[in-house]
Give the backbone structure.
Amino acid sequence: MMGPKVVREDDLKPIHIARLLGAMTVALLLGLSPSRAADAPLKLNIITAGNSLNNFPALLARRMGFYKEAGLDVQMINVNGGALAITAVMNGNSDLLNAVFDHTIDMQAKHKPMTAIFQMNKVPGAMLVVSPKFTDRIKTIKDLAGQTVGASAPGASSDFLVKFLLAKAGVDTTKVPVIGVGIGPSSVAALEQGSVAAAVIYDPAASTMIARHPDIRVLSDNRDPVVARALFGGDYPGTSAYGMTGWIDSHPEECRRYTLAMAKTLHWLQTHTAEEVMAMAKDDYPGFDPAVFLLAIQKTLPGWNTSGMIDPKGAEAALQVLRQFLPEVANATIDLEKTYNNTFIRQAWGTLGLPIPQ
């Protein structure tokens, strides 16, 4: 059996002491003991619902190396829509998913509880726009009756948004078929080709459509927090990181390390300009015009969450919205406090020695 390492005289020279202190400082900053910092990283599989700017903080954490610094080996894959991401997590093919928070409420109603531990956006960050080929026929949301509307995928939060807007306008949601058009270039193509009368789109695709079609008819735009609050009755929690409640409860160390990486990411976003953000984001969103992409980032920045915390009032707003068009939620007793856990992100800010941003 190998004994403890013997400290040699050379190890006590200033250069070695400096290196040792540097390693210890990094370990302490990450909230790890010096011995744990040298441990093999914990594996974490994350599935992302669509490559929109709403998900950029998760991509930035990877690009900046914050996952690795936190002692995580993160594997990320992307799918079109929260419903597909949820299926992957339920099947055990992923640990966490990045999608709009409201699915945690829907899943509790279906007796498949999920818990969010981090929130990236305080708005859904979506637009419902009319296809240029339908501009003459679709003037208001009521005109969508009998038309086909696009969402990222059936059952996704964008599908929820369509149904909410229809119900709010007094339109029978069963009379409006919703089909999947994906997120990004595929949603732009569906609108421009007229395969749908309207569609929910996210930045940078949303800004691309506005740049290409300045007269495009916008039926709803909740990218602006002020507009979103008026529409939903409060901040509506957008893209969040969550997993099956059983997994969250049994993997506190993975959750702690993940939220630590994300707190560092939010701090980076708050201390850099839109131009600097674009420089880091452009490789993850290829094919977009740089000027339009910058506008998209500027439009998205106000909607990113600064603290990572899930606001109880926002969770309540999401519940009230879902109750308007999802019978299973309307008829269920929902315990909102079980749909999120702010413990890990609160600890992360403390580990970093930073106050929780307001």
Observations:
- The longest strand covers residues 42-49.
